[in-house]
């Protein structure tokens, strides 16, 4: 490693040129990376709803209804005019209204009242609209311009368009606040006015390169686009800070800056790599998800942390050496007080807190797995947004509604008629639009115009559009999907296809719940294996992982006790992210505890050896051992508090910024979980972990005497002679 780092130091000018060019290129490439805002498109390709959508795209021009448009104070003739205006909007494929199921020339009193009220009531018309995927933003904007703010629209296409327009602005705003906070934290915790600038420069280069290289994926999810950069900022911050501080330590021993940097790099590689590796493992575990947002986010974040590590080991040395004279000139006194008193205070309460920790583990675990969940995108925008308010207005007037598309093999109209009649018997079914419903099983196809017929039949399939009085998700919806699939399978075993937002959400629920156990278990196992290799201990990795997992359970149990619904995707993602991002705190703490504990133990052993004989009783030995452990815990808390708080506070603030400033409820919930998760991990590491290490000291600390012990013996003998 020394030879490699010597080369890095020698060629630092060329390295800076290379990274400057790479950053500039990646800033340009970032604009070419596509962003996908449709959550249902990340279902596995083999899921039943995805296959159904693919078949329908091949067979029909019209898609699945993905928007509802409500217009107030209109007569039936005026509603028909609005229908034509909606159909003329670029990106609108299909508009369905009352006239597609009933003869609107008939008196309303003679119409089927259930069907009538599903489309028109109290002089308010509700249209079902199909919007093209690649023209959602333009089409939704045009519909809004047509109907005005007094009317309403909702649906997955509307939500996706809103997310597309809002997320970019919100992410930029969040990133700006996050950078300002990081700069403020670094000003408080560093001893040079220039150091925060250097750290942020290194982070900025790594983030820019990661964002640009996302082009290899073609497109990324809106979750990755929104959270990727700020998460990389939060979890990679301490790598650069640690290197700078190690360089300053080495400079005290070696006046040659280049040699000091090589020494600093050699000494810090193990600690930084171990920290980065556990974080990467946590993110890579997301790649095991069948739901493709997991691999999307996991790969981008793992790549980001890897690039941050490369930047720290190659780019940062060049920057530090170039500016080290200015670092020294801009040094200032410590702005934060010593935490020695805090460390002593923690040792007074650590054992009672361990008892509380032991009591909390089981209920926290059970509560964290007993939440009420949202699986799809239907609740992604709250009532504080235009989309949320529109959804409420439509549901208050017409109730809950969703549309499914059922494709069955073409040819047997009598079977189709029987299937339609049975579907009509479902209580939640408000209408069925199909060839046999519009023309009848015995009426020739020439009865319908070509455009209408092309929407109902293709070369191989008949198309049934089902309108249902149900939400986009929930137990009732999922039971309804199962019921419709069961009925369809009786008539067309294994040959039918069912699609719709509720159907996709049902498949999404099954996919992500299957992912849960697998992803979390493998993430924990992988981190344990890495820690076993790094720490060379059987007990310590279990203590560290259990500590962070308990922090995760506490974090995810809060919604249960506050009766709040949780987005299952956020729940699944945060498990691995919090583990990967905060286990570093526990590793740092345990490493420092073992180091201090061995030093104190060696000093004690050396002192006894210098005296020639150990006259202590067994009770005195136990007391002295307890004092040594307590002293080690206090010193460790004092030594690591600033480092842990820097990383933890940044992750906390970044999380809460995302939680408070994002109009997307899924992103906001991920952010809130990040903020609360960072706090819970910090509390357990600083207040509970000291007690756990104290109690299991004999299993986590090696007490073998070494060369350091012999040196301490010699020093203490000289001290005793002088006395």
Short characterization:
By secondary structure, the chain is an alpha+beta fold. The chain has 24 helices and 13 strands.
Give structural attributes:
Multidrug efflux transporter AcrB transmembrane fold; 5-stranded antiparallel sheet; 8% strand; alpha+beta; 4-stranded antiparallel sheet; 13 strands; 4 domains; single chain; 723 residues; 24 helices; Alpha-Beta Plaits
What does this structure look like?
The protein is an alpha+beta fold and 723 residues long. The chain has four domains: 1-32 and 190-335, Multidrug efflux transporter AcrB transmembrane domain (Multidrug efflux transporter AcrB transmembrane fold), CATH 1.20.1640; 60-159, Alpha-Beta Plaits (2-Layer Sandwich), CATH 3.30.70; 339-370 and 537-723, Multidrug efflux transporter AcrB transmembrane fold; 386-506, Alpha-Beta Plaits (2-Layer Sandwich), CATH 3.30.70. It has helices spanning 2-10, 12-30, 48-59, 76-87, 113-119, 136-147, 156-189, 195-213, 222-253, 257-284, 293-329, 340-368, 386-398, 413-424, 435-438, 450-456, 475-491, 501-535, 539-561, 568-611, 618-661, 665-695, 697-700, 707-722; strands spanning 34-36, 67-71, 92-96, 120-121, 124-131, 152-154, 219-221, 373-374, 402-409, 429-433, 461-468, 497-500, 566-567. A hairpin with a 2-residue loop joins strand 4 and strand 5 (124-131).
